[in-house]
Prior knowledge:
Elements: H1 8-29, H2 39-60, H3 64-75, H4 87-111, H5 113-123, H6 138-155, H7 159-176, H8 184-190, H9 197-201, H10 208-211, H11 221-225, H12 236-239, H13 255-260
Amino acid sequence: MTFPTDLEPWLRLGTFAGVLAVLAVAEMLAPRRRQAIGRGKRWPANLGLVALDSLLVRLLFPAAAVGAAIFAEERGWGLFNLVDLPAWVEIAAAVILLDLLIYGQHVLFHAVPPLWRVHRVHHADLEFDVTTGLRFHPVEIVLSMAIKIAAVMALGAAALAVLIFEVLLNATAMWSHSNIRLPLGLDRIVRRLVVTPDMHRTHHSIVPRETHSNFGFNLAIWDRLFGTYRAQPEAGHDGMTLGVPQFRDERDLALGRLLLQPFRRLPPQQREKK
């Protein structure tokens, strides 16, 4: 299956910019929660992390996951290169399996203390909006890309399937973190298939048993299947506190502090209690 590699970065960039713009406007028109800390204090660092992460991935993984798929296909590596399936079945199966991988990786980053320290940067945002879905420490992005490339090559996923997955993951991460108000009836229907903002907002609660639930970014089935689903935060969406206990100072929202956060030694009374 030939693949136009020269179009891949432009397609991803265009989709990213379009989804970000649409959701940012929707958050202004129909916000779910009133934000005490405005965009001006949070967005520069959140978007700064996106820029750093993108540059680092391009430097360390020039071909990224799509390139890994092409590399594996040319050599006949991976499961889907060893079986004869209709193209649409292969693409659908690869997208679903890669989504399961991201769910499992997310659980792992919560369960292993050193990984949690880097993932905690994502959770330490004091508000919850479309840019929270882009706010990841560069160490986590590098580890995530290495895991993804290994999975793509093991599966032998088609380059088109990987591109579809990457675009979906990026778009649904922004969607599931958006501060958008959905009618409750619509939310109940939509979250049967895909993760909604209300469903994922619970995951960003300061309450540990809520933090360690609702790990999905895209498909909603995994949390129900593996018993990590929580319907609503105990305090309600308007009353819940977002973030982590250790980083409540607005100064911790600065880009430099976000980059140093996983390596800061906290006093004993502030250390993690799970």
